[in-house]
Design goal:
The chain has 11 helices and 11 strands. The protein has 310 residues and is an alpha/beta fold. The chain has 3 domains: 81 residues, Orthogonal Bundle (Arc Repressor Mutant, subunit A), CATH 1.10.10; 117 residues, D-Maltodextrin-Binding Protein, domain 2, CATH 3.40.190.10; 102 residues, Periplasmic binding protein-like II (D-Maltodextrin-Binding Protein, domain 2, 3-Layer(aba) Sandwich), CATH 3.40.190.10. Strands 3, 4, 5, 6, 9, 10 and 11 form a 7-stranded mixed sheet that branches. A two-stranded antiparallel ribbon has the order 1-2. Strands 7-8 form a two-stranded parallel ribbon. Helix 5 links the parallel strand 3 and strand 4. This is Na(+)/H(+) antiporter regulatory protein. Pfam families: HTH_1, LysR_substrate.
Length: 310
Protein backbone atom coordinates (compact mmCIF):
# COMPACT_ATOMS: atom_id res chain seq x y z
CA UNK A 1 0.00 0.00 0.00
CA UNK A 2 1.22 3.48 -0.87
CA UNK A 3 2.87 5.35 2.02
CA UNK A 4 1.29 8.82 1.80
CA UNK A 5 3.79 10.34 4.22
CA UNK A 6 6.60 9.26 1.91
CA UNK A 7 4.63 10.61 -1.05
CA UNK A 8 4.38 13.97 0.69
CA UNK A 9 8.12 13.98 1.37
CA UNK A 10 8.80 13.21 -2.31
CA UNK A 11 6.39 15.96 -3.42
CA UNK A 12 8.09 18.47 -1.12
CA UNK A 13 11.56 17.63 -2.45
CA UNK A 14 10.33 17.92 -6.04
CA UNK A 15 8.62 21.26 -5.39
CA UNK A 16 11.52 22.73 -3.41
CA UNK A 17 14.14 21.54 -5.86
CA UNK A 18 16.29 19.65 -3.38
CA UNK A 19 16.53 17.88 -0.04
CA UNK A 20 18.07 20.77 1.91
CA UNK A 21 15.27 23.24 1.17
CA UNK A 22 12.58 20.59 1.60
CA UNK A 23 14.02 19.51 4.97
CA UNK A 24 13.81 23.10 6.21
CA UNK A 25 10.20 23.33 5.11
CA UNK A 26 9.31 19.99 6.69
CA UNK A 27 11.36 20.63 9.86
CA UNK A 28 13.40 17.46 9.32
CA UNK A 29 17.13 16.90 9.07
CA UNK A 30 18.43 16.34 5.51
CA UNK A 31 19.66 12.90 6.58
CA UNK A 32 16.21 11.87 7.81
CA UNK A 33 14.48 13.17 4.69
CA UNK A 34 17.02 11.48 2.42
CA UNK A 35 16.47 8.20 4.22
CA UNK A 36 12.68 8.48 3.95
CA UNK A 37 12.96 9.25 0.25
CA UNK A 38 15.22 6.24 -0.23
CA UNK A 39 12.66 4.00 1.49
CA UNK A 40 9.95 5.34 -0.81
CA UNK A 41 12.04 4.61 -3.93
CA UNK A 42 12.80 1.14 -2.59
CA UNK A 43 9.09 0.50 -2.06
CA UNK A 44 8.30 1.61 -5.63
CA UNK A 45 11.22 -0.34 -7.08
CA UNK A 46 12.28 2.60 -9.27
CA UNK A 47 14.34 5.76 -8.73
CA UNK A 48 12.42 9.04 -8.60
CA UNK A 49 15.42 11.36 -8.87
CA UNK A 50 18.80 11.36 -10.55
CA UNK A 51 21.81 13.48 -9.62
CA UNK A 52 23.01 16.01 -12.21
CA UNK A 53 25.96 17.76 -10.64
CA UNK A 54 24.63 19.24 -7.43
CA UNK A 55 21.06 19.27 -8.68
CA UNK A 56 18.39 16.61 -8.38
CA UNK A 57 16.28 16.00 -11.49
CA UNK A 58 13.13 13.93 -11.74
CA UNK A 59 13.31 10.66 -13.63
CA UNK A 60 10.50 9.65 -15.96
CA UNK A 61 8.94 7.75 -13.06
CA UNK A 62 9.38 10.80 -10.86
CA UNK A 63 7.60 13.04 -13.40
CA UNK A 64 4.67 10.62 -13.46
CA UNK A 65 4.56 10.34 -9.69
CA UNK A 66 4.70 14.13 -9.32
CA UNK A 67 1.73 14.65 -11.64
CA UNK A 68 -0.38 12.32 -9.52
CA UNK A 69 0.92 13.77 -6.26
CA UNK A 70 0.05 17.30 -7.42
CA UNK A 71 -3.52 16.24 -8.11
CA UNK A 72 -3.89 14.27 -4.88
CA UNK A 73 -2.64 17.08 -2.66
CA UNK A 74 -4.70 19.64 -4.56
CA UNK A 75 -7.84 17.58 -3.99
CA UNK A 76 -6.82 17.11 -0.37
CA UNK A 77 -6.41 20.87 0.08
CA UNK A 78 -9.81 21.47 -1.52
CA UNK A 79 -11.40 18.89 0.77
CA UNK A 80 -9.79 20.46 3.84
CA UNK A 81 -10.92 23.92 2.73
CA UNK A 82 -14.46 22.73 2.06
CA UNK A 83 -14.81 20.91 5.37
CA UNK A 84 -13.45 23.89 7.28
CA UNK A 85 -16.24 26.10 5.95
CA UNK A 86 -19.76 26.28 7.22
CA UNK A 87 -22.25 24.34 5.08
CA UNK A 88 -23.68 27.52 3.56
CA UNK A 89 -20.17 28.57 2.42
CA UNK A 90 -19.23 25.32 0.65
CA UNK A 91 -19.05 25.26 -3.14
CA UNK A 92 -19.27 22.25 -5.43
CA UNK A 93 -16.14 21.98 -7.62
CA UNK A 94 -16.95 21.87 -11.35
CA UNK A 95 -13.84 21.15 -13.45
CA UNK A 96 -14.39 21.86 -17.14
CA UNK A 97 -12.04 21.41 -20.06
CA UNK A 98 -12.72 23.71 -23.01
CA UNK A 99 -11.27 22.66 -26.35
CA UNK A 100 -9.34 25.48 -28.03
CA UNK A 101 -11.65 25.30 -31.06
CA UNK A 102 -14.76 26.14 -29.01
CA UNK A 103 -15.51 29.89 -29.18
CA UNK A 104 -15.26 31.48 -25.75
CA UNK A 105 -18.63 33.22 -26.21
CA UNK A 106 -20.23 29.79 -26.71
CA UNK A 107 -18.40 28.31 -23.70
CA UNK A 108 -19.55 31.20 -21.53
CA UNK A 109 -23.15 30.82 -22.69
CA UNK A 110 -23.19 27.07 -22.15
CA UNK A 111 -21.55 27.14 -18.71
CA UNK A 112 -23.63 30.02 -17.29
CA UNK A 113 -26.52 27.79 -16.04
CA UNK A 114 -24.08 25.92 -13.80
CA UNK A 115 -23.45 29.13 -11.83
CA UNK A 116 -27.18 29.63 -11.21
CA UNK A 117 -27.75 26.40 -9.30
CA UNK A 118 -29.19 26.55 -5.75
CA UNK A 119 -25.99 24.81 -4.60
CA UNK A 120 -23.03 27.19 -5.03
CA UNK A 121 -20.53 26.03 -7.67
CA UNK A 122 -16.82 26.72 -7.94
CA UNK A 123 -16.07 26.74 -11.68
CA UNK A 124 -12.57 25.65 -12.71
CA UNK A 125 -11.92 26.05 -16.45
CA UNK A 126 -8.97 24.80 -18.46
CA UNK A 127 -8.54 25.50 -22.18
CA UNK A 128 -6.31 23.16 -24.20
CA UNK A 129 -6.21 20.79 -27.15
CA UNK A 130 -9.03 18.27 -27.18
CA UNK A 131 -6.77 15.22 -26.95
CA UNK A 132 -5.05 16.52 -23.81
CA UNK A 133 -8.35 17.39 -22.16
CA UNK A 134 -9.76 13.94 -22.90
CA UNK A 135 -6.72 12.35 -21.29
CA UNK A 136 -7.46 14.32 -18.11
CA UNK A 137 -11.14 13.44 -18.30
CA UNK A 138 -10.23 9.75 -18.46
CA UNK A 139 -8.45 9.94 -15.09
CA UNK A 140 -11.23 12.07 -13.56
CA UNK A 141 -9.27 15.29 -13.35
CA UNK A 142 -12.13 16.92 -15.25
CA UNK A 143 -15.88 16.54 -14.84
CA UNK A 144 -16.70 17.49 -18.43
CA UNK A 145 -15.11 18.60 -21.68
CA UNK A 146 -16.73 21.11 -24.04
CA UNK A 147 -15.84 20.27 -27.64
CA UNK A 148 -16.85 21.02 -31.21
CA UNK A 149 -17.01 17.33 -32.07
CA UNK A 150 -18.03 14.07 -30.39
CA UNK A 151 -15.39 11.94 -28.73
CA UNK A 152 -13.22 10.55 -31.57
CA UNK A 153 -13.65 6.82 -32.04
CA UNK A 154 -9.88 6.30 -32.22
CA UNK A 155 -9.30 7.76 -28.75
CA UNK A 156 -8.49 5.19 -26.09
CA UNK A 157 -10.94 6.85 -23.71
CA UNK A 158 -14.25 5.49 -22.46
CA UNK A 159 -16.77 8.29 -22.57
CA UNK A 160 -20.00 9.62 -23.97
CA UNK A 161 -20.84 12.63 -26.10
CA UNK A 162 -23.91 14.65 -25.16
CA UNK A 163 -25.10 16.96 -27.99
CA UNK A 164 -25.60 20.53 -26.80
CA UNK A 165 -26.63 22.27 -30.01
CA UNK A 166 -25.68 23.40 -33.46
CA UNK A 167 -25.94 26.50 -35.64
CA UNK A 168 -24.85 27.90 -38.98
CA UNK A 169 -21.67 29.86 -39.64
CA UNK A 170 -21.32 33.62 -40.08
CA UNK A 171 -18.40 35.44 -41.69
CA UNK A 172 -17.27 38.66 -40.02
CA UNK A 173 -14.69 41.34 -40.71
CA UNK A 174 -13.46 44.65 -39.33
CA UNK A 175 -15.30 47.67 -40.87
CA UNK A 176 -12.21 48.88 -42.77
CA UNK A 177 -11.76 45.49 -44.41
CA UNK A 178 -15.50 45.08 -45.08
CA UNK A 179 -15.52 48.45 -46.89
CA UNK A 180 -12.92 47.15 -49.37
CA UNK A 181 -15.08 44.18 -50.43
CA UNK A 182 -17.60 44.43 -53.23
CA UNK A 183 -20.31 42.19 -54.59
CA UNK A 184 -22.76 39.90 -52.88
CA UNK A 185 -22.09 37.17 -50.35
CA UNK A 186 -20.37 34.74 -50.70
CA UNK A 187 -18.78 36.06 -53.93
CA UNK A 188 -17.20 38.95 -52.00
CA UNK A 189 -15.01 36.40 -50.18
CA UNK A 190 -13.19 35.55 -53.41
CA UNK A 191 -9.60 36.79 -53.18
CA UNK A 192 -10.21 38.30 -49.73
CA UNK A 193 -7.94 37.54 -46.73
CA UNK A 194 -9.39 34.73 -44.61
CA UNK A 195 -8.55 33.53 -41.11
CA UNK A 196 -9.24 29.84 -40.56
CA UNK A 197 -9.63 27.59 -37.51
CA UNK A 198 -6.67 25.25 -37.01
CA UNK A 199 -6.52 21.61 -37.98
CA UNK A 200 -7.89 20.57 -34.59
CA UNK A 201 -11.21 22.28 -35.37
CA UNK A 202 -14.11 20.18 -36.68
CA UNK A 203 -15.28 23.24 -38.64
CA UNK A 204 -12.20 23.61 -40.83
CA UNK A 205 -12.78 20.85 -43.42
CA UNK A 206 -16.54 21.46 -43.95
CA UNK A 207 -15.79 25.18 -44.30
CA UNK A 208 -13.13 24.64 -46.97
CA UNK A 209 -15.43 22.26 -48.86
CA UNK A 210 -18.27 24.80 -48.76
CA UNK A 211 -15.99 27.53 -50.16
CA UNK A 212 -14.94 25.15 -52.93
CA UNK A 213 -18.58 24.40 -53.82
CA UNK A 214 -19.26 28.13 -53.99
CA UNK A 215 -16.28 28.49 -56.35
CA UNK A 216 -14.82 31.03 -53.95
CA UNK A 217 -11.07 31.15 -53.38
CA UNK A 218 -10.11 33.48 -50.53
CA UNK A 219 -6.48 34.05 -49.51
CA UNK A 220 -5.79 32.11 -46.31
CA UNK A 221 -3.57 34.44 -44.29
CA UNK A 222 -3.76 32.80 -40.86
CA UNK A 223 -4.71 29.58 -39.06
CA UNK A 224 -5.52 29.48 -35.35
CA UNK A 225 -6.13 26.73 -32.82
CA UNK A 226 -7.46 29.35 -30.39
CA UNK A 227 -10.74 30.88 -31.60
CA UNK A 228 -10.33 33.98 -29.41
CA UNK A 229 -6.94 34.72 -30.97
CA UNK A 230 -8.44 34.33 -34.44
CA UNK A 231 -11.13 36.90 -33.58
CA UNK A 232 -8.50 39.28 -32.19
CA UNK A 233 -6.68 39.19 -35.54
CA UNK A 234 -10.01 39.68 -37.28
CA UNK A 235 -10.73 42.70 -35.08
CA UNK A 236 -7.44 44.27 -36.24
CA UNK A 237 -8.49 43.93 -39.87
CA UNK A 238 -6.10 41.14 -40.79
CA UNK A 239 -8.80 38.97 -42.33
CA UNK A 240 -12.37 37.70 -42.46
CA UNK A 241 -13.14 35.05 -39.86
CA UNK A 242 -15.94 32.53 -39.24
CA UNK A 243 -18.03 32.45 -36.05
CA UNK A 244 -21.20 30.67 -34.89
CA UNK A 245 -24.14 32.44 -36.53
CA UNK A 246 -26.14 32.19 -33.30
CA UNK A 247 -23.62 34.44 -31.57
CA UNK A 248 -22.73 36.73 -34.49
CA UNK A 249 -24.26 39.85 -32.91
CA UNK A 250 -22.42 39.18 -29.69
CA UNK A 251 -19.14 38.85 -31.61
CA UNK A 252 -19.93 42.09 -33.45
CA UNK A 253 -20.35 43.96 -30.16
CA UNK A 254 -17.30 42.43 -28.53
CA UNK A 255 -14.88 42.81 -31.43
CA UNK A 256 -16.35 45.76 -33.34
CA UNK A 257 -16.82 43.73 -36.51
CA UNK A 258 -19.48 43.47 -39.23
CA UNK A 259 -21.26 40.33 -40.44
CA UNK A 260 -20.72 39.89 -44.18
CA UNK A 261 -23.11 36.96 -44.50
CA UNK A 262 -23.86 33.51 -43.17
CA UNK A 263 -24.70 30.00 -44.28
CA UNK A 264 -26.60 27.09 -42.76
CA UNK A 265 -24.94 24.65 -45.16
CA UNK A 266 -22.04 24.46 -42.71
CA UNK A 267 -23.01 23.68 -39.12
CA UNK A 268 -20.98 24.19 -35.96
CA UNK A 269 -21.86 21.53 -33.39
CA UNK A 270 -21.07 21.48 -29.70
CA UNK A 271 -20.84 18.59 -27.27
CA UNK A 272 -20.37 17.92 -23.60
CA UNK A 273 -18.12 14.88 -23.25
CA UNK A 274 -18.24 13.00 -19.96
CA UNK A 275 -17.38 9.58 -18.59
CA UNK A 276 -21.04 9.17 -17.66
CA UNK A 277 -23.73 7.86 -19.98
CA UNK A 278 -26.41 9.29 -17.70
CA UNK A 279 -25.35 12.67 -16.33
CA UNK A 280 -25.27 12.95 -12.53
CA UNK A 281 -23.02 15.90 -11.67
CA UNK A 282 -25.49 18.75 -10.94
CA UNK A 283 -23.46 21.32 -12.90
CA UNK A 284 -23.11 19.06 -15.95
CA UNK A 285 -26.85 18.40 -15.85
CA UNK A 286 -27.48 22.17 -15.69
CA UNK A 287 -25.28 22.74 -18.76
CA UNK A 288 -27.10 20.02 -20.71
CA UNK A 289 -30.56 21.25 -19.73
CA UNK A 290 -29.63 24.86 -20.46
CA UNK A 291 -28.50 23.89 -23.96
CA UNK A 292 -31.79 22.06 -24.55
CA UNK A 293 -33.58 25.32 -23.78
CA UNK A 294 -31.83 26.85 -26.76
CA UNK A 295 -29.05 28.90 -25.18
CA UNK A 296 -27.12 28.76 -28.46
CA UNK A 297 -29.97 30.42 -30.32
CA UNK A 298 -30.76 27.03 -31.84
CA UNK A 299 -32.47 24.16 -30.09
CA UNK A 300 -30.08 21.47 -28.99
CA UNK A 301 -30.45 18.02 -30.38
CA UNK A 302 -32.61 15.80 -28.25
CA UNK A 303 -31.81 12.18 -27.69
CA UNK A 304 -29.66 9.88 -25.65
CA UNK A 305 -25.94 10.42 -25.36
CA UNK A 306 -24.03 8.64 -28.08
CA UNK A 307 -21.44 6.16 -26.81
CA UNK A 308 -18.09 6.96 -28.36
CA UNK A 309 -15.68 4.41 -27.05
CA UNK A 310 -16.05 1.20 -25.17
Amino acid sequence: MLNYRHLHYFWSVAKCGGITRASERLHLTPQTLSGQLGQFEQQLGRPLFRRVGRRMELTETGELALSYAEEMFQVGAELEEMLSRRPEQRRLPFRVGIADAVPKTIAHRLLSPALSLPEPVRLLCRADRLDRLLAELAIHRLDMVLADRPLPANMDVKGYSHPLGQCGVAFLAAPNLAAQLSGSFPAKLDGAPLLLPGEDSALRTPLLRWLERQKVRPRIVGEFDDSALMKAFGHSGRGIFPAPAARAREVERQYGTITLGQTDDVQERFFAISVERLLTHPAVVAVSEGARRGLLGDEANDGEAAPCSE
